[in-house]
């Protein structure tokens, strides 16, 4: 089973590099994902029953479980459409079937955490990992909402003055051309970078606001044409590139790299 897990992870990484799904995780996300999924890959080999490593393992598994849920939610309708690829001889059925890898890992994590980890007193470490992830998401949403009003005002007026330069505002202004916000089945290049911080911030914000949806769009003018988005980003962050030197994946790479709007 460890080999199966390793092969699934390798297949997902390879498919993501060729097809535009999650695009390229930013550095911190790649590091957290690598650390959290290390015990997931070796779950079949981890000794059952109490162990001095189980608290740490369960904490990481709590984070990994949240990452699995994040992936499932991010894929949206693909969770349903992928069911049909098992019978379809067309398209890219192999890549589409990998949609269920997060479900597969999540099931393993839950079974280990609640059935094979041993003492119930260890569950608190798993819960701590989940709580840590939830707290991070809520913090990002609060930070997003702190800057939401001034950025909306900037979009309306076309003036970039008054927008503070920080991590969150850079992500907010870079939505849809630099930072990938949602899975999309339509043709065209995707933004190259994937930062879960801005994605979960938008998800949680959309629950309580009617002027922005879970993909980061709104009907009343928050979104602007891509050229206006890029111009605003460059005005606030003149020292940062609007176009990265890597595309979301090999698919549509030439369209992304040659798009004159990003120059």
How would you describe what is shown here?
This protein starts with a helix and ends in a 6-residue tail after the last helix. It is mainly α. It has helices spanning 2-18, 27-41, 54-75, 78-85, 93-97, 101-116, 123-157, 167-173, 196-208, 226-236, 253-257; strands spanning 24-25, 193-194. The chain contains 11 helices and 2 strands. The radius of gyration is 20 Å and the shape is globular. It has a two-stranded parallel sheet. The chain folds into 2 domains: 2-121, no CATH class; 134-262, no CATH class.
Helix count from the secondary structure assignment? 11
- Which class of secondary structure composition applies to the elements? mainly alpha
* Largest sheet, spatial ordering of strands: 1-2
Q: What would the average pLDDT be, to the nearest integer? A: 86
Count of β-strands: 2
* Beginning-to-end CA distance, first to last residue: 47 Å
* Largest sheet descriptor: 2 strands, parallel
Shape: globular
Percent of residues in beta strands: under 5%
Percent in helix: 55-70%
